[in-house]
Write a structure and sequence with these properties.
The protein has 554 residues and is mainly alpha-helical. The chain has one domain. The protein is 69% helix and 1% strand. It has 22 helices and two strands. Helix 8 runs antiparallel to helix 11, helix 10 packs antiparallel against helix 11 and helix 10 runs antiparallel to helix 21. The longest helix is centred in the first third of the chain and has 33 residues.
């Protein structure tokens, strides 16, 4: 696969502004991908505010530095009679330019904020700006994300090495969740002569100290370096999307081995996260990667990836079996895919099926290689997606007819997502015209739910909701139809833009996989400052990176 990596290669005084921009981008990506996931202040108790403050400070600093760098680069390129990186040539359909949709998205958030200043005072303007009534995703957060996005999409010429560092952080986060899941008795270590020192001692302290003070009722809800298991599930989708993609499409053995290790352990921690959104998000990514692998003639590598995920799944099933039967320990089995897949016979059979599929793929590749190369792959992909869509509709229809819980939508569906989604739709339907257009203000859902549905909400769900647990519905209520449409438009335009200009490049493919995985899991999960920034950063990197590819060909 063709790779473009030019940081400080063939140094040319004419491009000194470009080198400065690259350096700032690398520093920023290192801080976001490698430091941001590990930042703590008071363990899990203030993790949302801690991560929010870190992201805002680092990103505001980046915006200031990169703006200065671009100002210099514009001056420098003008001095040398060349074109600035800041200038992007407009080609093709203007509605497919991501910056246009990001501008719409920012305007929607701003108008939503203005609504809070002009309404009857039900929604506090200050809290809408900071997001303090919810998950701190207020106007300030989106302004910072928006300016970062616009500047990072100008140009992002990066190497895979930054993803290796991200992979090390990912492995650390995965390992912590596995140790927390097993929950070994550290007091018994000394009895068997195990006295950890140095890094092992610090690691164990870090793992077990994170849960200090967590009540028994909520103990299993918090995990790894991300806090709530749903947020950890969001990170699993992001990281597995990136490294499954690296394993399939990289031609270098080091990257494939490194990514393969992460994929195996990722297959293990999905069950530990105990969140259906992780399985659905990763499943969507794997369908997309199948299409890319078919298009690029690397289906055998794709099925190898599935085998690695199957090995990881078998690993956690064996760990759970050992915990239950040998250690006599209970572990959290709340329901969903994780509970149903936590069977040794299922895990073994799934792995056997995946190995058989791999053997069939190798056989077909060997026997019908010439015919596959001549096949109209675009038509085959359309047929595959059509059949998949029909199959999905059939499964939902049959499941609903047979009253299977997963396919029967009611208040209890999806651990009460059915309830909060229903109420979000009602809030939108009953909203005045201006609120339908621009919403009630960022992070206003908690106030709205308490105002209109408090008694019913507590009676039905036994909790107070401050988020829709569906990002599109969240934006529909808080930023109106304009906000929800522009959010979807931003995803679609960025995805198409990156895909059309990807030139089969691995970095571009990683951005596509992460974007898709996050967006799909976001239809069942919540936006927050712990993993949501990754989505916008990977999206911006993808757009900026393919623009770099386009410049090299011009």
């Amino acid at each position: 696969m063709k790779q473009y990596n030019t940081l400080f290669k063939d140094f040319n005084k004419k491009y000194i502004g470009r080198y400065i921009i690259n350096s700032i981008n690398y520093i920023y990506l290192f801080l976001i991908l490698c430091v941001f996931p590990l930042v703590f202040h008071n363990y899990y108790f203030d993790i949302t505010r801690t991560r929010s403050n870190f992201f805002l400070r680092i990103t505001i600093g980046y915006i200031i530095l990169i703006a200065i760098a671009y100002a210099f680069e514009i001056y420098w390129t003008n001095l040398h009679k060349s074109k600035s990186l800041f200038v992007v040539e407009k080609k093709g359909n203007p509605w497919l330019y991501p910056e246009l949709w990001m501008t719409f998205f920012l305007m929607s958030n701003f108008f939503a904020y203005l609504i809070t200043l002009t309404d009857d005072g039900m929604i506090n303007g200050d809290s809408a700006f900071t997001g303090s009534d919810g998950r701190l995703m207020g106007l300030l957060m989106y302004l910072v994300i928006g300016f970062m996005f616009i500047l990072l999409t100008r140009y992002a010429d990066i190497k895979l090495s930054i993803y290796v560092l991200f992979g090390l952080v990912t492995l650390f986060a995965y390992l912590i969740s596995i140790v927390q899941h097993i929950n070994p008795d550290t007091k018994s270590f000394s009895k068997i002569g195990f006295k950890p020192k140095g890094i092992p001692e610090r690691f164990l302290y870090y793992v077990f100290k994170l849960k200090d003070g967590i009540s028994k009722k909520q103990y299993n809800i918090f995990i790894s370096t991300f806090g709530n298991i749903n947020i950890y599930a969001s990170f699993i989708v992001i990281s597995l999307a990136a490294f499954a993609c690296m394993f399939i499409f990289s031609n270098k053995l080091f990257y494939r081995i490194f990514a393969g290790i992460i994929v195996v352990i990722g297959g293990t921690v999905m069950m530990i996260a105990n969140s259906d959104s992780a399985y659905i998000g990763v499943g969507s990514v794997m369908i997309f990667l199948f299409i890319l692998a078919f298009k690029d003639d690397v289906l055998t590598k794709y099925f190898q990836t599935l085998i690695l995920l199957g090995i990881g799944n078998l690993g956690i099933v064996l760990i759970n079996k050992y915990m239950a039967e040998v250690l006599k320990k209970k572990y959290d089995k709340r329901g969903g895919f994780a509970e149903h897949l936590d069977r040794l016979d299922y895990a073994v059979n799934i792995l056997i099926i995946l190995v058989i599929l791999y053997i069939i793929a190798v056989f077909i590749n060997c026997i019908f290689k010439d015919k596959l190369e001549k096949m109209n792959k675009n038509k085959a992909i359309i047929i595959f997606l059509s059949l998949l869509f029909v199959f999905g509709l059939a499964v939902v229809y049959i499941g609903n007819k047979k009253h299977i819980g997963a396919f029967t939508f009611n208040y209890r569906w999806g651990t009460f997502r059915g309830y909060i989604w229903t109420k979000c739709v009602e809030l939108f339907k009953d909203a005045p015209f201006m609120n339908k257009l621009f919403g009630y203000g960022n992070e206003s859902l908690k106030t709205l739910m308490n105002t209109y549905y408090h008694d019913e909400m507590v009676s039905v769900t036994k909790k107070i909701y401050d988020n829709a647990h569906n990002e599109v519905l969240q934006y529909l209520v808080t930023t109106g139809l304009c906000g929800a449409v522009s959010y979807i438009g931003l995803f679609v335009s960025s995805f198409i833009y990156i895909f059309k200009n990807s030139k089969n490049d691995l970095v571009a493919y990683i951005s596509l996989a992460v974007m898709l995985g996050y967006f799909i899991q976001g239809l069942m999960n919540l936006n927050q400052p712990i993993t949501t920034p990754f989505y916008f950063v990977f999206m911006a990197v993808g757009v900026g990176y393919v623009r770099g590819l386009m410049r090299k060909d011009s």
